[in-house]
Amino acid sequence: AQAAREAVFDAAVAADERIEPRDWMPEAYRASLVRQIAQHAHSEIIGMQPEANWITRAPSLRRKAILMAKVQDEAGHGLYLYSAAETLGVSRDELLDKLHTGRQKYSSIFNYPTLTWADVGAIGWLVDGAAITNQVPLCRCSYGPYARAMVRVCKEESFHQRQGYEALLALSRGTEAQHAMAQDAVDRWWWPSLMMFGPPDDESTHTAQAMAWKIKRHSNDELRQRFVDIAAPQAEALGLTLPDPDLKWNEERGHYDFGPIDWAEFWDVLKGNGPCNDQRINQRRRAHEDGAWVREAAAAYARKHTGQHGE
Ligand code: 3HC
User: Fold this and answer.
1) pLDDT for the residue numbered 1
2) CA of 195 to the centre of ligand 1 (A)
């Protein structure tokens, strides 16, 4: 019977059909999806911190309103993704507990500080730009709830990317000091943005299996290259340079060549030694503790009202 169920699962994946929560699936497929979707959700929630830092310091009401909308969107992305993870039989509490105790990760990119207002533009353009490059293929992921969550997320991400690009363009075309602030932010955020795509393919634990299951549709290096090819011309349009002397269009390859990534830094940040790891996780734990009374009140209210109307 197990062999028959595996055959049905394999045939569905091979035929590019969606696997839904009630379908039989290999335990390893479920576990890998829980790992990736939970860490994706954690990234969205932690990712609210660096930008929220600038909501009260935005240079105009317009920029403040845009940034508030973006940070609110990230919270929503987290909720879609925790909900998608719950369809695999895990609870949000359990996932948050794993995040708070370092047993699950969040994206390395959010362990860097947002030092000036220009960082908000650089994050929108580069970090959300990289996220789009990574998330568009996930709309074709074999697991239904994850793929469908990505469709809505990608629509909102393109607003995130465009507002960041536009903010950077305003600075780049502004005073000399503003141009220098935009260039400094791009210098600091470029290489960590390339690390968002994960380690090189030959050091990636999950890529082969994730591609066999059609969770991952392209390898880490392929999507990283795709992002560099998109961002390099955009930097020129912005009148800003990227901090890579080896970045150069290669006609034969039809891609940009780019310099070596500092993988020691990447693995160090993953180990918890990035500039902001402690700050981010401590703030996350504090927010969770401060919010306990809200969760308890909501649960009490639900118990009371469910009892009354017998829904
Ligand atoms: N930061 C932290 N951990 C990372 C990482 C990064 N940038 N890149 C890889 N890792 C981890 C992996 O999670 C894995 O560890 P684990 O086994 O404990 O989970 C290990 O490094 C080996 O990497 P692999 O390449 O084998 O792992 P994956 O196959 O999972 O590939 C990934 C990594 C490309 C990030 C993939 O998980 C993925 O596509 N995830 C969904 C997208 C996502 O999580 N994006 C987060 C960016 S933030 C964001 O999108 C928010 C937006 O609003 C800006």
Assistant:
1) 86
2) 9
Question: From the CA of 198, how far away is ligand 1's center (Å)?
Answer: 6
Residue 138 is encoded by which pair of tokens? 């996930």
Which is the closest atom of ligand 1 to the Cα of 108? 1
C-alpha span between 70 and 47 (Å, rounded):
11
Pairwise CA distance, residues 88 & 31, whole Å: 8
Within 6 Å (CB) of ligand 1, which residues are found? 35-36, 39-40, 43-44, 47, 74, 77, 105, 107-108, 127-128, 131, 134, 195-199, 204-207, 210, 216, 220, 270
Q: How far does Cα 289 stand from its chain's mean position? A: 24
ipTM score for this prediction: 0.98
Rounded distance from Cα 67 to ligand 1 centre (Å) = 25
For the segment 51-90, what is each residue's pLDDT rounded down to a tens digit? Answer: 999 999 999 999 999 999 999 999 999 999 999 999 999 9
In the numeric block, which tokens belong to residue 244? 């890579």
CA of 11 to the centre of ligand 1 (A): 27
pLDDT band at 309 (very low <50, low <70, confident <90, very high): low
pTM of the predicted structure, to 2 decimals: 0.96
Using CA positions, which residue lies closest to atom 27 of ligand 1?
206
pLDDT above 80: residue 311: no
What is the structure's pLDDT at 306? Answer: 81
E-state strands within the chain: 248-250, 255-257
Q: How far is CA 38 from the centre of its chain?
A: 11
